[in-house]
Amino acid sequence: MATTTIPAGTKWWSGGKSPFNVSYGKVMMWYFLMSDSFTFGSLLIAYGATRFSENFWPDPNHVFNTFPFAGEANLPLAFVSLMTFILIFSSVTMVLAVHEGHKMNRKGVEKYMLLTILGGLAFLSCQAWEWTHLLTGHHIALLKDGTLGTMHTSIMQNPFGPALSHEEIVNALQVTPHDQLVTIAGTLEHTGGVAADLAKLSDQDLINQISSAGIHANQPGVVSFGGFFFGITGFHGFHVFSGVVINLVMYIKTRLGHFDERGHYEMIEKAGLYWHFVDLVWVFVFLFFYLV
Amino acid sequence: MSQHTISPEITYHSAPSENTKRIWKTFWILSVITLVELGIGLAIYNIHKEAQPNQALVHFFKGMVTILTLAKAYYIISVFMHLGDEIRNFILSIAVPMSLFVWFIISMIWEGDSWRNLKNTDAGSRPAKTEMVKPAAVQPGAPQ
Fold first, then answer.
1. Which has the minimum average pLDDT: A211-220, A274-283, B76-85, B92-101?
2. Residues of A in contact with B86 (CB under 8 A)
3. Domain spans of chain B, in order of start
4. How far is A202 from chain B (nearest CA, A)?
5. CATH topology for A24-136+223-291?
6. Cβ-based neighbours of B48, under 8 Å, separated by 6 or more
7. How many inter-chain contacts (A to B, CB under 8 Å) are there?
8. Are the Cβ atoms of A216 and B108 closer than 8 angstroms?
9. Partner-chain contact B136 A59, CB within 8 Å
10. Three-class SS of residue A133?
11. Which has the minimum average pLDDT: A169-173, B5-9, B50-54?
12. What would the pLDDT profile of A186-200 be if each residue is shown by its tens digit?
């Protein structure tokens, strides 16, 4: 694309031709993406302003440190880097599809569109796993009534506030009711207890077991963390989903030979612009939610 | 002439490039930048594990990943989205509105910081309590 030869001194604004030298459809796609970037920008900036207004913000390396099939292994940044590379790679296959489209090579466009769709689906699967993991995972945290309990991450709560000291944990355990003690003991690896067996133990035995295991517990984290995380990654995931649908439509239209009839593959370019935008937004989501 | 059927708005057509060298080069640039970012991310993680984390170093690293991310954004927009191949008029019609983000970001971050100061000092009625908060604990069962 880099070899446009435009005569020097071309008067773009003198009328008779478009001053942008870009087709109407592509200009409108660009302007849509520009407005969309302000939507994403506003969400991310609201997140940034809120984060700056808090004394303590959950550390992403503690929130996102798991990997599928790796159990409870502490692997910060691992899963999100997989997601990032999936999206970068699907961006490359998309731009290769556009390239094949320039050459009017239908088979090439079909191949790379299919790879791009697969990349998008892989990314969505990763996101589904991550959301499920956060919404169902349980960490030990100080509850509102001053007892210890387990907590998942949602838009209402998260267990990633400042860490409790050992004394604070011991004190909270003294006032924690039996069923919560059983639940906490059940999360410990080394007790290996079945819930029914644990329930038979006395409160003091459970407390001894829990405190000797050297557990870590946090205060509840800032409530808005979940809203921003699920809201922004959800909005981005919805863009990925619609991008996959658009790419699927483009793939079918390519197969049906619509673009060959039309004589150009510009629709692939427009779908490509949208897809690259999804990758572009992820670059910033990755930075602000996972890296810093 | 088949190219002219694309759109009457295009006065000067560009010849499609022959090879994909530039695309793959950009892919490698993006991958390497991402790997560097991950390295910095792990460095930040390890600094936070220390008893007295060096806050200045953390801020420096966070600034670095932000700059690297802007570089990635530039490559995606310029090469993958082909904006760099369009004429100047069009590039500016995208880039100039985007510059609104500069003040947007500065003002809202400033606002957030001021909000924190107000909360910590009851709107200035008492001195700021600079309480050192410990980082969140690592999950149970995780290697230290």
1. A211-220
2. 20-22
3. 20-85, 88-124
4. 23
5. Four Helix Bundle (Hemerythrin (Met), subunit A) (1.20.120)
6. A59, A61, B58, B135
7. 239
8. no
9. yes
10. helix
11. B5-9
12. 887 655 556 667 888
